[in-house]
Amino acid sequence: MGPIGPMSLIIIGVVALLIFGPKKLPELGKAFGSTLREFKNATKGLADDDDDDKKKKELDK
């Protein structure tokens, strides 16, 4: 069993519900999802740039 088990996730969910309330949680989830999507796209762009640089170096040789 890892450091975060099912019981831990339930406790985190209940605490988040108590702190933010049921109306605010969907908004927070949507914002978190869009942030992760932007981060993923940005890191993919960096990886693509690295691949392009490697290809250019190989062609120059």
Instruction: Give the overall average pLDDT.
Output: 82
The whole-angstrom Rg is 20 Å
Q: In percent, how much strand structure appears in the residues?
A: under 5%
Number of helices: 2
| Distance linking N and C termini | 50 Å
Overall helicity: over 70%
- How many strands, which pairing sense, and closed or not: the largest β-sheet? none
What is the total tally of β strands? 0
What best-fitting shape do the alpha-carbon axes yield? elongated
What does it look like?
The protein has 2 helices and no strands. It has helices at residues 6-20, 25-60. It has 61 residues and is mostly helical. Helices cover 84% and strands 0% of the residues.
Structure characteristics:
mainly alpha, 61 residues, single chain
Fold topology:
Layout: H1 6-20, H2 25-60
Précis, in short:
84% of the residues lie in helices and 0% in strands. The protein has helices spanning 6-20, 25-60. The longest helix has 36 residues, at 25-60.
